[in-house]
Amino acid sequence: MAQTVIAPGIATPGITRRFAAVVGELWKDKAGFFGLLVMSSLILVAISAPLLAPHDPAAQSLSARLDPPFWLEGGSLEHPLGTDNLGRDVLSRIIFGSRVSLIVGLGVVAIAGTVGTVLGLLAGYNGGRVDSVIMRWLDTQLAFPGLLLYLVILSVVRPSLLVLIVILPINAWMVYALLVRGVVLSAKETPYVEAAEIVGARPKRIIFRHILPNLAAPLLTLAVLEFASAILAEAALSFLGLGIQPPEMSWGLDVAIGREYVFNAWWLVTFPGIAIAVTVLGANLFASWLRIVADPHEREKRFAAGLGTTGGRGA
Amino acid sequence: MGRFLLKRILQGAIVVIGVTVVVFVVTRLIGDPVRVMLPLEATAEQRAAFAAQLGFDRPLYVQFFDFIGSALRFDFGNSLWQDRPALEIVLEALPRTLLLVGASMVLAVIIAIPLGILTSLKPGGFLDRLLVTLSLTGLSMPNFWLGLLLIVIFGVQLQIFPIFGSGTLMHAVLPAVTFALPSAARLVMLTRSAMIDELNKSYVALVKAKNVPFRRLVGAHAFRNAAVPVMTMTGWEIIRALAGYSVVVETVFAWPGLGFLAIQSITRQDLILLQAIVFVVALMIITINILMDLAYKYIDPRIKLT
Amino acid sequence: MMRSKREALALIVGLLLVACSSGTVTTTAAGGGPATTSGGGTEATSPPAESADITIILAGEPTTLDPQIRDDGNERAVSDNIYETLMARTPEGELVPGLASGEPTQVDETTWQFTLQEGVTFHNGEPFNADSVVASVTRVIDPDFASEQVSFFSTISGAEAVDETTVNILTNEPDPILPARMYWMKMVPATASSDAAFAENPAGTGPYQFVEWVRGDHVTLEANPDYWGDDVGNVTRVTYRFVAEAGTRLSALIGGDADVITNLQPEDVGSAPQSASVTGLEHPVLIINAMEGATADVRVRQAMNLAVDKQAMADELFGGNATVDQCQILSESFFGYNPDLEAYAYDPDAARALIAEAGAEGATVEVIGTAGRWLKDREVVEVVGNFLSEVGLQPEVQIFEFDEYLNRLFGDIRPPAIYVTSSNELLDADRQLSAYYHLDGIGASNEDTELAGWIDEARSETDVATREGLYHQAVQKACDEAYFLFMLNINDVYGMSERLQWQPRVDAKILVKEMTVSA
Fold first, then answer.
1. How far apart are the CA of B212 and the nearest CA of chain A, in angstroms?
2. Is C161 helix (H, G, I), strand (E, B) or coil?
3. Cα(B96)–Cα(B117) distance, rounded to whole angstroms?
């Protein structure tokens, strides 16, 4: 009897209390906290770019080309991180470049995540024919030279932000499908799903009530990791000249421009590169932390481990 | 075993054909090599004559069957850019890419496995935290940027290593390190994780109780089991390097391998060469996959090949 | 010794020439100010070495060493030293006999006769004679051979040997610039060139002969001991390497791994041990659509010309290694160059007024460019876009990948404004005018029949003065009508090692025989 009285209190603690607990836990894990900080700054910076940027990122000045950062001789606080080959403000370009990274990251995650999850659910839940067709397809596609195929497509289709968001999921959906299928398969074995099936609950209901909740945490973790890898992919393609095209702005593109000037303007490659690395690092750390808090088994390990156990996804 | 091989080879054949078809369709439907190959000032008649000469004026399906027929005989035709057999060009570049990828993977494994084991022995310790943070940072850096940083530091400032071309082994150092660092970072994380899992298992406690020296325990028992995921990851790293990152890293260092060749064939719209590259890379990936499966069997005889 | 002899020779040749033209050549030693090469610099301090091996770094690897099949600047950079042509040019661009023993004569309207140098042999031992000339001509114009160079030789219909050292070149129509075309056609040995492996075993008559080509790495040539000419420097062996990145080329030069690098970035001039900048053949320009849209109004086109600060682009973007085009897409050294024209001034106020007059304030003008094909191609278009927006137009800058860019450049739908870099190795106005000025030209955006008439007339006009007059007239009209946004003539900039003396040529050929290395 006592149990029934106490249970609701434990099962649904006040939202504020839960939030405080999560933040408290996050604060204890400095790396995870840093990750969250980076991710939220990225979003904030991207949204409020026009307010934060000291200059119009496209404004040129032929007479102020290749000015160094402020702490070097010839630099000034007017352009804290210096200017590029057309006299544009490097800091402002980095601030505005965050928008492309954010949009590509979110767009690719949304498309690839949806497609992958649906296919993974179909394969895992239905099993049999559907499963074997989807898995065959996946096995075959895994052997495709991924980036090379992107390059082939991008060499004939004019690359743009939209094109990137559409083609990057061509390869990215597979991880989601594999993850979801795995979780569904193991969830199907659990007594409550078996019971629900015996009672005659509809498949849809079973998926939504019993399987999806199991998926939420690992999917979220994977989405954050994939967010990072989409940002890296965009940067790499833009660097090769097959991604974002000027006058649009992108960190990868700015590194490519700066590459021509490594000898006399090292800041052109350095700062956009740091922006990419910090963003990806932040996403990786955040994902590590998510994985640990969301997974009881991992939580145990974490006591010993301190930090995340999966690697992030990187270049 | 024989059946397994046969199955995998068949599967591989499907992939190769699929890749070829995709490349052909994408490039011939939208790209036009004739415009790119002739000088800007050439007249329309000159362009038409050039297209006819190279067979680009034939119906697409004729070009396609012609192409498939030739591909089966490993005859991709002459590269438009270099005017000699495309396969010959690809096979010249292939060893350079393999050398680079091979060297960098050896480097990555040599760095990563000891470090991974070391961190797993005392999880949460200072060394563990340091190495994990370093690894995460390493794999968060874009490849091309890491390469440029190495160029600026070791090539331009310190002038220790040559930064372009492929003449000597010294030339391979910076590109190989660029390849190896992110791979090593991922491998450290994975080795560590797999080792922690193994060391937590009950048989480890049992062996410990039997007074087997800890060092031997790590080497003989735990690592043997942890080796399978580590190998899988290494295989994946090789595939990722071949199928993608070689393009980026080789471009940064002007290393004349397959990836650099791919970029050059794209800028020159040399479709024939591009097809040959993709074909050969797909073949390499399939081979590596099969080799990996065989290696599992060798490491852990319990694994069944189906 | 060699050097002064060469200079004396150049001086004599220069005095003999009828028409005078010259490119400006300046070299800069690191840290020093600009100085003309002939004047002084470092060369006086140390005598030339007995012999020397040098390394030249090109921006890309030759696609082939067959000198007749591709239109490839990297191939030419090597082949120009192995092969020779009937006509040659001085470093300043004057057309002079090469393998021909004298100026060609016109036998009739469609026949030019060349007499040949005697006693010349190819590196493989084949003699150079009338038969080799006939074989070379027949080979390159053969449609089955599908040479990318055909547009240089479009008027040539064949060749016939008169005797051992006399040969007639035949044309479809009267062709006043046939001698200039023969400056572009490399002479190949009759027998060896019919071999499929000729590209791997090149053999010419030039001062350097082929040693080896390790694909992806280097090409090596060595001095031809039996070279027929006597005007050769002290370089005995030359190795070509290939590096696409300007920064990487520079680091090789600084590190002592190279004696000459091509396409030195203007920003890097100060970092190179020695550099040389010579008026080049490349003219970046914007083709403006004079047929429709806001740019159909001549005032808008003129305003666009007035809006761009060309001098600032030359000084800042190109670091002084460019000159402002005088309202024509021609270099001073080209036949047909109109010396009376002047560039549109930089006058944003006047531009704004003209745009207001035309009622085109805020009009959208799409400006199309590409990236990575020509020096600073992307930057030029971005800068122009910026200037246009400052005078009240609304430029839409679009940087396309090269293939897509070519779609726009050659498409039937003419873009409002599109960037192109025109270069003309024949140094004759016909090529540029036919391609970009003439309404049927592949890159023309005007419907000016009068202009087209003059260009057609000039093409087969054999009287030099009349022909030149027609070109002056045509170029003048295109300037007044502002069919283009005229911009710059870009210098070829080379980085050189301390020990090398070399005066780069206006025709962008990198002739090793003209280089001297000090001990």
1. 23
2. strand
3. 32
How many angstroms away from the CA of A283 is the closest CA of chain B?
9
A236/B248 Cβ within 8 A? yes
> How many whole angstroms separate alpha carbon A39 and alpha carbon C76?
53
Distances, alpha carbon A131 to alpha carbons A119, A134, A187, C345, in Å: 9, 5, 16, 71
Side chain identity at residue C482, one-letter code: A
Contact yes or no for C403 and B35 at CB 8 A: yes
Distance, in Å, from the CA atom of C277 to the CA atom of C265, rounded to the nearest integer, reads 11
User: A130-139, B235-244, C348-357: which has the minimum mean pLDDT?
Assistant: B235-244
Q: Which amino acid is at A212?
A: L
Number of Cβ within 10 Å of residue C118's Cβ equals 12
Q: Which pair of structure tokens corresponds to residue B65?
A: 């069957």
Residue B126: how many other CB atoms lie within 10 Å: 9
How many Cβ atoms sit within 10 Å of the Cβ of residue A214? 16
Question: B263 pLDDT exceeds 90?
Answer: no
Closest to C249 measured CA to CA, from C86, C55, C82, C445? C55
Q: Are A58 and A101 in contact (CB under 8 A)?
A: no
* A180-198 pLDDT per residue, tens: 998 888 877 777 777 877 7
| Among A140, A152, A228, beta carbon nearest to B15 | A140
CB-neighbour burial class of residue A252 (10 A; exposed 0-12, middle 13-18, buried 19+): buried
B37 three-class SS: helix
Chain A nearest C-alpha distance from C25 (Å)? 25
Cα C290 to Cα C304: distance, rounded to the nearest angstrom: 12
Q: Answer whether C403 touches A (CB < 8 Å).
A: yes
> What is the DSSP track for A229-286?
HHHHHHHHHHHTTSSS-TTS--HHHHHHHHHTTTTT-THHHHHHHHHHHHHHHHHHHH
Other beta carbons within 10 angstroms of residue B151's beta carbon come to 26
- CA–CA gap between residue C37 and residue C23 (Å, rounded): 12
Asked if A311 and B123 come within 8 Å (Cβ–Cβ), the reply is no
Q: How far is CA A22 from the centre of its chain?
A: 21
Assembly ipTM? 0.83
Residues of C in contact with A68 (CB under 8 A): none
All residues of chain A having their beta carbon less than 8 Å from the beta carbon of residue C265 are: 260-261
pLDDT reported for residue A89: 95
Instruction: Determine, for residues A306 and B151 on separate chains, whether the beta-carbon distance falls below 8 Å.
Output: no
pLDDT in tens, B114-150: 898 888 887 778 888 888 888 888 889 999 999 988 8
Identity of the residue in A145, A255, A263 whose CB atom sits nearest the CB atom of B282: A145
Contact C316 A155 (CB under 8 A): no
Tell me whether residues B244 and A156 touch, CB distance under 8 A.
no
Q: Kindly give the interhelix angle for B143-150 and A267-294, rounded to the nearest 10 degrees.
A: 130
DSSP string, B207-261: HHHTT--HHHIIIIIIHHHHHHHHHHHHHHHHHHIIIIIHHHHHHHHT--SHHHH
Q: Produce one character per residue of A76-102: b if its CB has 16 or more CB atoms within 10 Å, e if not.
A: eeebbbbbbbbbbbbbbbbbbbbbbbb
| Other CB atoms within 10 A of residue A155 CB | 24
Give the integer Cα–Cα distance in Å for C233 and C2. 6
A155 vs C423, higher pLDDT: C423
Q: What is the pTM of this model?
A: 0.80
**What's the pLDDT at C392?**
92
Determine how many CB atoms are found less than 10 A away from the CB of residue B149: 18
| B182/A315 Cβ within 8 A | yes
Residue C403 is nearest to which of B32, B84, B96, comparing CB atoms? Answer: B32
Q: Which DSSP string do the residues of C193-252 spell out, in sequence order?
A: GGSGGGGGS---SSSEEEEEEETTTEEEEEE-TT-S-----SEEEEEEEE---HHHHHHH
